[in-house]
């Protein structure tokens, strides 16, 4: 494959010209705490099956992406064990009986180094794939993501992961403001709430692609194949 030759991907609101050498797959927060039964997401009362639908499409896309030799990055939402980077307002939000930093079934909730904070085995990073630990919802806030992408010469992002309306949308908006072009495959992102899945995607592609483009992973895969 010519890494500098644009590949045309069918997308909304119009086709996306993917330049392999400049495009990275950014997988957001596919962590055990959000996706597995017994994790933080389920403790908050959410139905994790809504998120687990995105695992297989992400596996398929990741396999093809890696085989094509394209750049992959992963993110994890979480905090230092001493909670020094956890805003008090985030700690108390929701008024749940258990919150970030407390001990749950998979270790301390959303704390770096704990089992629940780690990425699910189905999508585990390979050595050499950067993993961005982020304290907020957006992957650019208080991280070195922008510097890493600039050093790699990346200007386009295929953004996948969870949840569509929270960390995926926040990251796409942050990326858009920094000049990145973002393509979101709708089957590779997921929300606990079907209405937010729908609206989260609508908001990205509305008004001529105000934050980016929306497609389906099969459309990317068929072009990379
Ligand atoms: C949330 C995320 N929903 N990764 N995190 O708290 O979207």
From TrEMBL:
One example GO MF annotation:
hydrolase activity
Q: Which UniProt keywords apply?
A: Hydrolase
- Coiled-coil segments on the chain, per record: none
Listed Pfam families? Isochorismatase
Q: Where is the signal peptide?
A: none
Q: Where is the Isochorismatase-like domain?
A: 23-216
PANTHER family xrefs? FAMILY HYDROLASE, PUTATIVE (AFU_ORTHOLOGUE AFUA_2G08700)-RELATED, PEROXYUREIDOACRYLATE/UREIDOACRYLATE AMIDOHYDROLASE-RELATED
Q: What is this protein called?
A: Nicotinamidase-related amidase
């Amino acid at each position: 494959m010519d890494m500098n030759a644009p590949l045309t991907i069918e997308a909304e609101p119009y086709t996306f010209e993917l330049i392999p050498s400049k495009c990275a797959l950014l997988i957001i927060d596919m962590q055990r705490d959000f996706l597995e039964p017994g994790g933080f997401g389920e403790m908050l009362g959410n139905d994790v099956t809504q998120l687990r639908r995105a695992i297989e499409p992400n596996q398929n896309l990741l396999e093809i992406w890696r085989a094509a030799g394209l750049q992959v990055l992963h993110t994890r939402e979480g905090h230092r064990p001493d909670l020094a980077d956890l805003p008090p307002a985030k700690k108390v939000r929701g008024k749940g009986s258990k919150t970030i930093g407390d001990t749950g079934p998979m270790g301390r909730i959303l704390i770096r180094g704990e089992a629940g904070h780690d990425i699910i085995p189905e999508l585990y990073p390979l050595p050499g794939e950067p993993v961005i630990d982020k304290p907020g919802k957006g992957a650019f806030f208080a991280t070195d993501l922008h510097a890493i992408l600039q050093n790699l010469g990346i200007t386009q992002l295929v953004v996948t992961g969870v949840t569509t309306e929270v960390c995926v949308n926040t990251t796409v908006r942050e990326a858009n403001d920094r000049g990145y072009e973002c393509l979101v495959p709708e089957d590779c992102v997921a929300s606990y709430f079907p209405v937010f899945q729908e609206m989260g995607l609508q908001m990205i592609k509305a008004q001529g692609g105000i934050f980016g483009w929306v497609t389906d992973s099969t459309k990317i895969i068929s072009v990379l194949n």
